[in-house]
Amino acid sequence: MFGHRICLIETGARSVFVLMRPRTAALPALLLFPTRCRSAAIIAESPKTSGNTVPAAAMMFSFKPLMGKAAPQHMRRDNRSVLSRRAFLESAIARSCILGCSWFIPQTVFPQTAKPAPSNRINVLFIGTGRRGMELLRLFIAQPDCHVVAVCDVDQEHAETGKDFVNARYGTRDCRVYYDFREPLARSDLDAAVIALPLHWHSIPAVMAAKAGLDIYAEPPLAHTIKEGRAVCKVIQRYVRVWQTDAWRRADNRFLQAAELVRSSAIGSIQSVEIGTPHGHVDCAGTAGQETPTKPPPGLDYDMWLGPAPWAPYAPARVHGNWRWHLDYGGGQLMEWIGHYMEIVQFSLGLETTGPIEVEGSGEYPPAGLWNAPTKFRIRALYSTGLTITIVGAQGIREGILWKGEKESIHMSPDGAVEYVPRSSPQLAKPKPLVPAPIAHAREFLDCVKSRRLTSTSAESAQRAATVGHLGQIAIRLGRKIRWNPATEEIIGDETASRLLGKSMREPWYL
What spatial distance separates the first Cα and last Cα of the chain, rounded to whole Å? Predict the structure, then answer.
């Protein structure tokens, strides 16, 4: 209309539409925008200019982000009004009285270089380069469109290891190293963050990264508490970010085969599901028993490692790897596995946006020592449909997922092997080998960063998966059944239990 060009500038908290003047020359120009903008680069047709000025819009105004048919699927909301293109143009013309004028803005207001388009290259920050962080780093850096530009870890040795690996891979010295994740989040050249931190650090960096406009790939479970997990979900939705939980088994075609058998009712209506997990405490870092308080190693910022957790003296058995066996930092075997297995169960039964109505559980705690997470547990979750999901971590339990149907039962082991139970039933056809699941899962995230589609392991799905484990922990701790409202995420009729839905955070940390 009138030869003008319309551009949408996304700033995260708001959107700005720019109505450009009709072009007077054929030279395309890149419309540079403020550093906090996180959308792909916006291309506009504008006259050729010289000097330190950039022709900008003749008229600007802002409003809530556009929803409706023109928006990507994950941005649509049925209860929000839709601003059509015609309505926008009519409003713009009606409110503008200076369409024939030009604004000249000093170029110093804008960044000096344009951010690479996500369709070409995705600039990634790694937060956490310990054991799991390095595993993810190797997966992501092998993808041609993933460009790792910075790594961060509170342990200097871990951070330097990550930096050296990236620089060796690229044959450069460009990878920046940080020891406080807040510093790289101020950069304007990042597209995504991969977060691999202890459980008590899952929520705060994720929320801050989303507010900084980054898409996020992070470890399960979603957060240390149900309230923290809901805070993550809200900020992901508000800032329209792509989220992928590293529940990589969701990308394994053998797991998907089992889920499809359940979804297609091939084994009949599902009566119950049993999940078997490892039990006990595994020495992940060779520091079991090293519980005597001592001075932290010089390269570890121990106060930063503790972060929002209560202050406690440093001991080797408290940190790296073995943090998962202490409830101030982890959740034991239950929370280690709940995010992986429940993602599969939810997908197979269509439970990604709901939860149980009752949870009860029992467990055994260590009699003494630094590690205080349950070593054995049994949790039973009841859903409104009558379905029960039982999660057991104990000796003699077969690990994996067992779906019990009216006709048949099928079992999926941790390594992905799927079989009918009893074994006398017809054997399943072996699925065709595809891309290894961890690689496929990382690939899905990068593709969704470009397409803006919802991933297979969204924040909402991760929240629902983790909730079953969190409620189980509360039931074990209090020794009584928990009644739960999955719609409001509230415990019914138990104030003491309700207080355990969140944790206080040590200053200065908060959500």
Answer: 46
